[in-house]
Structures are given as structure tokens and as C-alpha cells.
Specification:
The complex is a heterodimer. Helices cover 83% and strands 0% of the residues of chain A. The model of chain A has no long low-confidence stretch (mean pLDDT 91). Chain A is mainly alpha-helical. By secondary structure, chain B is an alpha/beta fold. Chain B folds into 2 domains: 153 residues, Rossmann fold, CATH 3.40.50; 70 residues. In chain B, 36% of the residues lie in helices and 26% in strands. The longest helix of chain B is centred in the C-terminal third of the chain and has 22 residues. The mean pLDDT of chain B is 87. Classes of the chains: A mainly alpha, B alpha/beta. The interface between A and B is medium-sized, with 20 and 22 residues.
């Protein structure tokens, strides 16, 4: 009961604030629709919203999976090839200084209007937090765990997968939790720049036709989607890495 | 190699972060005896132990450590050496787990060892639910599971409270009485209690002094005047060395 109250309280507060702003400033419908209009769109246009949600969800999930694979691979390379680390690490940092919005049109040009450009965009956005989190975890494996592996005469590959990788999981989980929150940004930006499907596309489409309530309902679904993926990731990391919170 | 020695450190020179840490270290480790490497904090005791375990190979400039043929090394470090993602039983069978050759026999032995270290009733707990002393008991069982003939202990009791420390010191002596042990410690009383042979490490660069050889069954009880005097002597030497290194 307490948990439900904890969730309902901030939501109610936001809804009251929203409605209060509309009444107080006498905002027209095309500027800020009423919460009840957005809710109406969610119930009447659910098949349209669901059609576009599936596309965005798929882009986000594929982006997260591919970004995690690339991130993990890069972290392994950085750890074991010190010469590469010297050059690759600064490139990684510089890559984060380039705004993703700026390269979105290029990605659409290179990878087309389909799903690929959105997935690439998502991969680019999450690649850095995943790589750095995993690399830090691999690098900071407690020395006593490595000493044991050494006295057991484990090969470097065995040490990597059986000790270092396991030890890096808490750090990787933190990186993943950040990544899943920012992954939808990549997918939506990609859809804004060029697409014919997805929630980002639907938002632009609705905006152009002054269907602001539909645009808000798409935005609402995007928020729910992001929160759901985040809480699912949090639940899974706690379930499969229960020892993470007891490390120190 | 003389048959009484399990390891001989010969003219060992080691550089650490561009600084000469060891200069021409020479000493022997006697087989089936317990040897203590005593020194103040930061003098390089653990580094020396890591040299013996072949963990500092990239820093050794000249000299060598000769181990008797067929020597197997087990490593017992300070608290938190258990792998938290493994169960207690898998931690005890760690060597077999990591090598992928766990059997019913190793499982049976692990359970026996857990009983010896009084941890049978905690078998279903997670490692992170254990206290520091309980974790060290598991680590001792894991060390015994390896069946090594040279056991290197890097201040294994330093993070424990006084009572747990005494309990585990006695338990370790009891379980490792036939093994060759090298113990790193900064505590002269612990060195006297747990070792037959005591070396003092002095800095800088580190040299080593053969400080004492004590016969008798371990743990040594500090009940006679001779051992009290030895403790005073060791403390005096450590203090002298500490003063010199602070000048």
C-alpha cells in the first residue's frame, strides 16, 4: 500500500501541476493539451500508438544489445592491448564531444531511412558508458582475486572470463542502467531526422498536424517505455548480481 | 638445493615504480617450518611474498627465487579474498571450479574442510552474508583444499578483531602444522606465536636480517621470559628501523 502511495503521489502532483498551469495561464489546446485529452488519445488511438511503439522498442532493444556487445568487446581490447589503449581511449573521449544530433543526418544518409540508422544512433549513444563502465570494472578487479587466479595458474583468457569479467559485472550493471536511460534518445533522434515509423516519427507527424494531444500521448509512451526498461534492468541486475551492493 | 629448503631467495634485486626496493636479498625458507617476514607497514613484505609467488616477475631486475621441484603454492591473503559470485562450497573448491574439474570427491573434501573450520552450519549462506572472521575460515578451508606444500599468507589476520584473530591463529596452526608456511606480518607477537623462523625486513632499500629461530610446536605460547625478551628485541629493531626510514 505504501509503495502504491509512493508512486501515485508524484504522478498526482504532476497531473495537478499540469492542469494548474493550463488553467492559470489560459493555455490553448495547441500549446498544451489537457491531461484528459492525452488520456483519450491513449485509449482511442492505441492501435496506431502500439504500431509505432513496437518499432521504437525494437530499435532501442537492438541498439542496447549491439551497443553492449561492442562496448564489452572494446573494454576487453583496451584491457589486454595496452598499446591500443593509448590511442583508443582518447578517441573514445573525443567521440563523446561530437553532438549526436549533428551526425544523425549523416547516419540516415549512410544507413538509410529504415531501422538500421536508428539502431546505429542508439549504439553510438550507449557505447561510451558501456565501454568505460566495463573497462573500469575489468581494470579494478581486486588484486587478491587476481593473485589467487595467478597462483592457480589460470591462463589470461581463463582469468579474463572466470575472474575479471565476473568482477566487472557490478560496474557493468551501473553502466547499463545509464545506457538504457539514454538509449531511447538515439532511437527518437534517428526517427526525427528521417523515418516513416516509430514514436519519434509519430510525434513529428502529429505536431505538423496540430494533434498535440497525440504527440503528448506518444511522448507519454516513450517515458513509460524508458522507465520500464530501466526498472527491468535494475531488477535483473539485482537478481543476477546480488552481491554487487555488498562489495565494499 | 639443500633438501631442507623449499625455497631459496638468491641476490634478489627489485625495482618498484622506478625506485630500488630490494637490494641483494638472500634468505632461505625451511621445509615443514613456518617462516615469518616481519616488518613495518609499507616496507615491502607483501611485495617479497608476491615475488615468491611469482607475481612480481616484471619488477625483478636481477637475482632469482629457486623453488624445490614439485612445489605447489597456495595463497592466503587478507579479508575479502572470496569470490562473491560463487557459493561457499564453490569457493572452497575454487581451484577445481576454475579448472572445471569438480567431482563428488572434491565436494566431499570441501564439506569435510568446512567442518574442520567450524563453518558447516553456514554452508548455504552467501559469502557476502559472512563476517570477516567467517570469510577467513572459508579462505583457510580453500587453502587446505589445494593441498599445496608451500602456503603464503599475506597478513591474513590483520583485519580481524582481537578474539577472532586469536581463534583463527590457533586454528591455522592446528590445521597447517605439517605444512611449510611463509607468513607476512607487522606484529612481532604474531610472528613469535606462529613462526619457527623470523626474518626482519629493514628499509631502504630493503635488506633482511635473520632475527630468530624458535623450536617447539606451534602456536608458541608467550609464557616464558625468553619469548618476552625476544618480543622486546623485535619491537626495538622495528622501532629503530622505523626511525631511520623517517629521517
Amino acid at each position: 500500500m505504501k509503495k502504491i502511495f509512493k508512486i501515485l503521489l508524484p504522478i498526482s502532483f504532476l497531473l495537478i501541476l499540469w492542469q494548474g498551469v493550463i488553467v492559470l495561464f489560459d493555455l490553448p489546446h495547441y500549446m498544451l493539451p489537457q491531461p484528459k485529452d492525452v488520456f483519450l488519445q491513449l485509449t482511442t488511438q492505441y492501435s496506431l500508438l502500439w504500431e509505432h511503439t513496437q518499432i521504437t522498442l525494437l530499435e532501442i532493444l537492438l541498439g542496447i544489445i549491439l551497443g553492449s556487445i561492442f562496448g564489452l568487446g572494446s573494454a576487453f581490447v583496451l584491457l589486454y592491448f595496452k598499446r591500443i589503449e593509448k590511442y583508443l581511449l582518447p578517441i573514445l573521449v573525443i567521440s563523446q564531444a561530437i553532438p549526436v544530433f549533428a551526425i544523425a543526418p549523416l547516419l540516415v544518409l549512410w544507413f538509410g531511412y529504415g531501422m538500421a540508422s536508428k539502431i546505429v544512433m542508439t549504439v553510438i549513444i550507449i557505447y561510451f558508458p558501456i565501454t568505460t563502465a566495463c573497462y573500469d570494472g575489468l581494470k579494478n578487479t581486486p588484486k587478491q582475486w587476481l593473485q589467487l587466479a595467478h597462483t592457480y595458474k589460470l591462463s589470461p583468457l581463463q582469468t579474463l572470463f572466470k575472474v575479471r569479467f565476473k568482477a566487472s559485472l557490478p560496474s557493468l550493471a551501473s553502466g547499463l542502467k545509464i545506457a538504457v536511460c539514454i538509449a531511447p534518445i538515439g532511437a527518437v533522434i534517428g526517427e526525427w531526422v528521417g523515418s516513416s515509423k516509430g514514436l519519434g516519427y509519430l510525434m513529428l507527424h502529429a505536431n505538423a498536424r496540430m494533434q498535440i494531444d497525440l504527440m503528448f500521448s506518444a511522448l507519454f509512451i516513450l517515458i513509460v517505455l524508458t522507465l520500464s526498461i530501466y526498472f527491468l534492468t535494475d531488477f535483473l541486475t539485482k537478481k543476477f548480481i546480488p552481491w554487487a551492493s555488498h562489495l565494499h | 638445493m639443500n633438501n631442507n629448503f623449499i625455497a631459496q631467495v638468491k641476490n634478489l634485486n627489485l625495482n618498484f615504480k622506478g625506485k630500488k626496493l630490494f637490494e641483494n636479498l638472500n634468505f632461505d625458507i625451511l621445509e615443514n617450518k613456518s617462516t615469518a617476514l616481519l616488518g613495518t607497514s609499507g616496507v615491502g613484505k607483501s611485495t617479497l611474498l608476491r615475488c615468491i609467488a611469482d607475481l612480481e616477475i616484471e619488477n625483478i631486475s636481477t637475482g632469482k627465487i629457486v623453488l624445490k621441484e614439485g612445489t605447489n603454492i597456495a595463497w592466503l591473503s587478507q579479508e575479502n579474498s572470496l569470490y562473491p559470485w560463487l557459493s561457499i562450497l564453490d569457493n572452497v573448491q575454487l581451484y577445481h571450479h576454475l579448472k572445471g574439474n569438480k567431482t563428488k570427491k572434491t565436494l566431499r573434501k570441501a564439506k569435510e574442510l568446512l567442518e574442520k573450520v567450524n563453518m558447516s552450519e553456514h554452508i548455504n549462506k552467501k559469502t557476502y552474508e559472512l563476517s570477516g572472521g567467517q570469510k577467513q575460515r572459508i579462505a583457510i578451508a580453500r587453502t587446505l583444499m589445494q593441498d599445496a606444500n608451500l602456503i603464503l599468507m599475506d597478513e591474513p589476520f590483520s583485519a580481524l578483531d582481537a578474539i577472532t584473530k586469536i581463534q583463527l591463529q590457533d586454528l591455522t596452526c592446528n590445521l597447517l602444522k605439517d605444512k611449510t608456511v611463509v607468513l607476512v606480518t607487522h606484529d612481532p607477537q604474531e610472528a613469535i606465536k606462529l613462526a619457527n623462523h623470523i626474518y626482519i625486513l629493514k628499509n631502504q632499500p630493503v635488506t633482511i636480517e635473520d632475527a630468530a629461530f624458535l623450536e617447539g610446536t606451534l602456536p608458541h605460547k608467550l609464557t616464558n621470559e625468553k619469548l618476552w625478551n625476544l618480543q622486546d628485541e623485535l619491537i626495538f629493531k622495528l622501532q629503530e628501523n622505523d626511525k631511520r626510514s623517517n629521517i
